[in-house]
Amino acid sequence: AAAVLGDLGAEVIKIEHPRGDSSRRYGAVRDGTPVWWKVVGRNKRSVTLDLHTPEGQDIFRRLSADADVVVENFRPGTLEQWGLGYEELSEGHPGLVLVRMTGFGQSGPYASRPGFGTIGEAMSGLAHLTGAPDGPPTLPSFPLADAVAGLSAAFAATAALRARDATGQGQVVDVSIVESILSLLGGPLAA
After folding, report:
1. Spatial separation of the C-alpha atoms in residues 9 and 19, rounded to whole Å
2. In this predicted model, what pLDDT tens digit does every residue of 48-77 receive, in sequence order?
3. Which of 50, 58, 134, 146 is catalytic?
4. 146 is known as an active-site residue
5. What's the CATH superfamily of 49-105+145-176?
6. In this structure, what is the dihedral angle of CA atoms 75, 105, 39, 28, given to the nearest 10 degrees?
């Protein structure tokens, strides 16, 4: 989502744990850098913060105070545990848009479960619909559900910014990986 917003011209500051994003150590390497990191890290300036500490939380609050959009992908309730939920971040900054990306959304019976693209591809029925009719469920060869969720979140963020322009009020955008991929499968699933 943040990379796509960067593609559209946004200044993106990526907050990483002091250990760094795991994408920096994943997959094929070219010129000393993992190719996957070159893709997902594009258009971003990275800083490290330990959001478990009061100092890291304070720096995050100050960065968020000047942001149009904050994109996060923690399990529901994590930002609130750190005192960084929407109520706190939007206090004095009512136009803030908070995009929350999870496997299953912020509410519902599976909200507290971790989720990622492969789970979304399986639970949505995509894996069942892919491959030979008499064969096993087949996953795509790339992170399709993650990409669809990212595009959905970027689109939702721009729509929320447009609404903010009209009303002066920000909002919370809740993007679920499973629901994002389900949105593409409406016809086949309905059939």
Report:
1. 28
2. 999 999 999 999 999 999 999 999 999 999
3. 146
4. yes
5. Crotonobetainyl-coa:carnitine coa-transferase; domain 1 (3.40.50.10540)
6. 60
